[in-house]
Design goal:
single chain, 140 residues, 4 helices, mainly alpha
Length: 140
């Protein structure tokens, strides 16, 4: 794994850890708010409950779109790399599949990290921001 891949994997791990901590905080705050609101939530509660659903739809929509675009970009990069190297023809002529396969595996690993990174970004951004925002607010 090269330095760039290690950094991307570390950043992805950090974002996943932060998301793992932020999401339960947000869920606990909102469930508590729903329980206190009862069957007649205030206007402020209604806005928060609406925001909760709208943000989820927006975050996951952005995540899917970003992952799809990154997947298309990565597929183009992988195909261009294979065409430049003449793979697998060059490997078969040389009698060794090791180098082209190792290069392809590294490219696929990089592509997977890029796609996952694009997917977690919008969800992470909203969950961490909500945890901070809701952590500051007073619950009545």
């Amino acid at each position: 794994m090269n330095v760039s891949s290690r950094r991307k994997a570390a950043r992805l791990g950090t974002q996943a850890s932060e998301l793992m901590l932020a999401a339960p905080q947000v869920v606990a705050h909102r469930l508590g708010r729903m329980a206190r609101a009862g069957h007649r939530p205030s206007v402020k509660d209604q806005r928060e409950f609406h925001r909760m659903g709208a943000e989820k739809l927006a975050a996951f929509g952005e995540a899917w779109q970003a992952m799809t675009l990154q997947m298309l970009k990565s597929n183009q990069q992988l195909a261009a790399s294979m065409m430049r190297s003449g793979w697998p023809g060059a490997a078969l002529r040389n009698g060794s599949m090791g180098a082209p396969l190792a290069q392809a595996a590294a490219l696929w690993q990089q592509a997977a990290l890029d796609i996952l990174g694009q997917g977690i970004r919008p969800v992470h951004r909203r969950a961490v921001a909500n945890a901070k925002r809701l952590g500051r607010s007073r619950i009545r």
